[in-house]
């Protein structure tokens, strides 16, 4: 089986597995305990927080460990919005966000009376600073956008958004789940107030992530103990946190080589597809790891099944429910709900662990299936 669905999740590296195994066997203490086992675990917790903070060029106190990207997004958006609604009840996001943002925004509208503006892609498929500027109001208190789209790989102009919001009361939340580990990101330099990440997108374990946060007033989602600098109750997942810190450190150390490797894989794949009729979704400004590609007249659900039977793991990039492929809300926003791209597109997502031979085998199988 050839795995090419890395935007959904990534395999663990040997180094990550080793770091987690060490914690399981040698450092099982609760970091809140006062005895030697607890102190040893607490020391490891501080080391992991320092490792991640250093990579993000921030202070350790600005890193809160969570259960993953969904919790980090909810913690930042809901936590800030509810605690600061006296400043205004207008929120801004985009139409191409992950469901953990879109459904939360819908919840805040229906349950608490917030008003949400969804920025739409322009004719070139881009979310522009101009559209954000025109949507800002005096009562806007939070703007939430992703760094890189999970279906198309499109990069949003985060630095430009940050500059635009520098003199506005609205805080800036960035869902960087698809970007962390694939590029250098320093949130404070970008003018970002909150930044979400999930370990399993950069060869770490599932069920753990982090939230970078400036010291803003926020409501807590979880109530209980005083873990995570009193901002997130619950005993820390030391096994997962250690694996995540190790995975991010590996990604940072090999960032240039990994980027070159993935770029070469992408180039090799398209070289093999030269004679085929296909199109790409999104803009030219993307992370190289994600390829959203469509083949005119070819049903993506049937194509996925044929590829799976042939030993290739790819996806549509949208939710699969009860055996049916739901239309992509991202492609709907980009091309309209009636576009044939919604039923023709698949997502191929790469990592540096893939090989050129695997991509060539995929291209050969696509040519065989599509003819």
Automatic annotation (TrEMBL):
Belongs to the class-V pyridoxal-phosphate-dependent aminotransferase family. NifS/IscS subfamily. The keyword GTP-binding does not apply. Its cofactor is pyridoxal 5'-phosphate. This is cysteine desulfurase. InterPro entries: Aminotrans_V_dom, Aminotrans_V_PyrdxlP_BS, Cysteine_dSase, PyrdxlP-dep_Trfase, PyrdxlP-dep_Trfase_major, PyrdxlP-dep_Trfase_small. Pfam families: Aminotran_5. Keywords: Iron, Iron-sulfur, Metal-binding, Pyridoxal phosphate, Transferase. It catalyses: (sulfur carrier)-H + L-cysteine = (sulfur carrier)-SH + L-alanine. Its EC number is 2.8.1.7. Residues 2-362 form the Aminotransferase class V domain. SUPFAM superfamilies: PLP-dependent transferases.
């Amino acid at each position: 089986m050839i795995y090419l669905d890395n935007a959904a999740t990534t395999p663990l590296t040997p180094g990550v597995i080793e770091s987690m195994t060490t914690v399981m066997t040698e450092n099982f203490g609760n970091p809140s305990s006062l005895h030697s086992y607890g102190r040893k675990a607490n020391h490891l917790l501080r080391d992991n927080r320092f490792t991640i903070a250093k990579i993000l060029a921030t202070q350790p106190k600005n890193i809160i460990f969570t259960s993953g990207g969904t919790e980090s997004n909810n913690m930042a958006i809901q936590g800030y919005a509810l605690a600061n609604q006296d400043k205004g009840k207008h929120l801004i996001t985009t139409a191409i966000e992950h469901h953990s943002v879109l459904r939360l925004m819908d919840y805040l509208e229906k349950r608490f009376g917030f008003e949400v503006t969804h920025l739409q892609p322009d004719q070139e498929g881009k979310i522009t600073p101009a559209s954000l500027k025109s949507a800002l109001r005096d009562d806007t208190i939070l703007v939430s956008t992703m760094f890189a789209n999970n279906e198309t790989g499109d990069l949003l102009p985060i630095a430009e958004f940050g500059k635009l919001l520098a003199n506005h009361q609205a805080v800036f939340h960035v869902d960087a789940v698809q970007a962390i580990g694939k590029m250098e990101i320093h949130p404070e330099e970008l003018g970002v107030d909150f930044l979400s990440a999930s370990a399993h997108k950069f060869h770490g374990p599932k069920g753990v992530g982090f939230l970078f946060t400036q010291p803003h007033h926020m409501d807590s989602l979880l109530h209980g103990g005083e873990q995570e600098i009193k901002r997130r109750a619950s005993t820390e997942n030391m096994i997962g946190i250690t694996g995540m810190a190790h995975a991010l450190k590996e990604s940072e150390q090999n960032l240039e080589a990994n980027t070159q490797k993935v770029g070469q894989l992408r180039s090799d794949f398209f070289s093999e597809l030269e004679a085929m009729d296909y199109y790409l979704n999104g803009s030219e400004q993307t992370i190289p790891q994600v390829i959203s590609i469509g083949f005119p007249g070819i049903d993506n659900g049937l194509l996925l099944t044929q590829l799976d039977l042939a030993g290739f793991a790819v996806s549509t990039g949208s939710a699969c429910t009860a055996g049916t492929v739901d239309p992509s809300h991202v492609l709907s926003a980009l091309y309209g709900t009636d576009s044939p791209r919604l039923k023709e597109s698949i997502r191929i997502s790469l990592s540096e662990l893939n090989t050129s031979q695997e991509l060539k085998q995929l291209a050969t199988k696509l040519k065989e299936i599509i003819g």
